[in-house]
Amino acid sequence: MIQNGNAYEDGFTDATKPWFELWKNRNAETEAAAKRFTTREGIVWQYVDGVRDRERISPDAWNTDWVSVSRPTNGRIQMELLYDYRKNLEEYPRWQAYFREHQPPTLILGGRNDPIFSVQGAMAYQRDLRDVEFHLLDSGHFALEDCGYEIGQHVVSFLERVLVREPRAVMESPVPVRSIV
Question: How far is 58 from 68, CA to CA, in rounded Å?
């Protein structure tokens, strides 16, 4: 099950251009541009951009994140994590090879209005997987925040079908995935 996750470079939106600039040439200027994601406004944006109804998103979500991120020294830690995320891209070919070789039944869930990971990135899984089910909901990056019930229904339905059809496929260890977003 993949929920707002990425395994293909074409899955990134224009909003992530500062990340690529940071990864290519880390300096004060590229760090400053990437810090947008760790400001209070940037955190709120990640929660509410693309959602169907902002009122369904509890402010507790972004306020809790903001309290954590704004602690002394945490800004530096967040920048290190964001910089480290570039290593995920180095793993993409390995993940894609795993998909091609093992063909795990896969459920893709996410927000079709996600400002960070694109619909094209979600659809890219079809390049390597034959048995893939998509549910791209009318939501943004944190689709669980406003579509949690719908996502839960899709997960239960998927597991009921897959466990009956291929119980061993669910029990095999997946390739480890690293993510900060």
Answer: 16
